[in-house]
Amino acid sequence: MASLSTVSPASNVVIEIGGFPIRLSTDDPAFIEMLRERYAGFVTSGTNAQIEFDVMLAPPDAMLGNGEVRVERESGQWSMGRGDFEADWNPRAARGIIRQSANPYSLNSVLRIVHTLLLAEHGGFLVHASSAVRNGRAFLFAGASGAGKTTIARLAPPDVTLLTDEISYVSRQEDGYHAYGTPFAGDLGRLGENMRAPLATLYLLTKGTENKIEPVSAAEAGRALLENILCFARDGELVQSVFEAACDFVGRVPTQRLTFTPDARVWEMIG
Predict the structure, then answer these.
(1) What is the DSSP letter of 119?
(2) Beta pairing partners, 217
(3) Residue 155 main-chain phi, psi, to 5 deg
(4) CA distance 194 to 181
(5) Does residue 7 surpass a pLDDT of 60?
(6) ∠71-74-79 over CA atoms, to 5°?
């Protein structure tokens, strides 16, 4: 692993998601400019970064791993990788190195992984769900691929603000759980709004022939939520934290099953 002291970045950008500003530095200004465009709306001042990564760019065809996601912790330091990136992060020092080719998709994966680790320490999580804000309250729409996350986001009326159509950011605050907007876009190809709101309801999506809402038991809600939470590390302590967060969440936030047809009238039942 290269030493942080060997990297002399010429430019940087700070990307803030979920209230965590992360500075990314590299000696390639063109790459930084690409990130500024890719994460527009989530770029913030460079004076308040909580975590810093030096990004070392590899040739476009470089293979840095075996293609499978790997996230491991050893002596308090996280190591992560896939075929298109390798990264090391020391949470105590709040510093790390990312080695990847010059594309935003690898970095997007690193950011998702890092945020799952950050959120687990504070009782939150990333989850496969679209989310939106209406009348000052946030709603989650969770489900496996094809359940309708993007569809319900696409059907949202003008008074609804989209946070994401793919990966929702759930954070535990003193007054309960909040959903944040993310730049982790799905099929809509549209970044969410960089804002947050208290969570009112988790909807478990099912496509059907009519629009209806049904109650869900806490046990069923917990199972469904755990099936959709992103957890990349096979780390016992981390997995336990995610399990406890899911159980606490379904005990505090109402969960309902939403069966719907692909029609905008479903939003008459939401909010």
Answers:
(1) H
(2) none
(3) -85, -5
(4) 5
(5) no
(6) 35
The enclosing H or E element of 114 equals: helix 104-121
Q: Which helix (H) or strand (E) holds 44?
A: strand 43-44
Token pair 């990333």: residue: 126
3-state secondary structure of 178: strand
Tokens of 224: 């469904």
3-state DSSP percent of the chain in helix, strand and coil, to 5: 25, 40, 35
C-alpha to C-alpha distance for 255 and 69, rounded to whole angstroms: 31
Looking at per-residue pLDDT, the higher value among 62 and 180 belongs to 180
End-to-end CA distance of the chain: 50
Tokens representing residue 234 in the block? 């096979």
Distance, in Å, from the CA atom of 35 to the CA atom of 56, rounded to the nearest integer, reads 14
* 131: Cβ contacts below 8 Å, ≥ 6 apart: 138, 139, 140, 141, 162, 163, 164, 168, 169, 179, 192
CB atoms near residue 252 (< 10 Å): 11
Q: pLDDT, tens digit, for every residue of 72-107? A: 999 999 999 998 999 999 999 999 999 998 888 899
